[in-house]
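During the no-cost extension, the postdoctoral fellow (Dr. R.K.) reprocessed legacy sequence entries with the updated structure-token encoder. One reprocessed record is reproduced below for audit purposes.
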Amino acid sequence: MKMDSIEKIPFLPIEMFKNHQVLDEKFSPKHFFQSSGTTQTVRSRHYLADFDLYEQSIGKSFSQFIGPPEDYVFLGLLPNYSENPHASLIYMVDFLMKKSGKPENGYYLYNHGELRDLLASLRHQKVLLFGVSFALLDFLDYCTENHVELPQNPQLTIIETGGMKGRKEEMTKDQLLSILQKGFRSERIFSEYSMTELLSQAYSTGENIYYSPDWMRILIRNTEDPFAYMPADRTGAINIIDLANLHSCAFIATQDLGILHHTDLAHSIHPAFSVVGRIDHSDIRGCSLLVS
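Re-encoded structure tokens follow.
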């Protein structure tokens, strides 16, 4: 088949990362990222020739959609890097903390009281709290049970990274964002979309509408035909072109369901997209398993 259009490119099923080393044969792996999971599940591994492209991708995407990392205090409702050196999400947050250089940066997954006090002390600063969905909800439950109201900080940004599976009652993204908005008393409830098999991130600054950086492209494939693609506003499976995957595979067929939107493109040169679920019978994935 002549490859004269993006739609004719064969995309690698994401499951291949579970049983194969997907890496340019000219490079020896220096590190790997591993998907979250339990001891009973086969976990994907994404081997890296080096960290340079990943760090460039992190910095440029964050600056494009959120702002300069140096402006923020970064807090994490996540395990720290020493506990999860092979989690791409933790590597990303740790990298942003280093770029920020703020002394208050830190991880507070197991210390809700200290996090609440710190948020109160930082109520006049730009603060960004990264968290898996269930951990953010657990923190709000702690505040409710202890009759503690969070101080209002118009400069507080929450970035939820998904991860509810098996840890909390499932809810829609809109329901989750509404709860977080009310609980954290902030309009800035954002989301991040990535995965172990990618070295780039898409960001949503509200309403489950994600924008991808210039080197990342989203296509929505027909779930019945891997070489047929859905028009805008129709649900299908998400294919991703990630040019930061220079030494592995830049063309990934995921098991996520999504929709392309022809909407305001001020944040990106590509159409926006939404993530609406998983293909039936696909493996459970999610950052909630990071803290199992």
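The two ends are 45 Å apart (CA to CA). The CA atoms of residues 72 and 126 lie 5 Å apart. The remaining legacy entries will be reprocessed before the final report is submitted.
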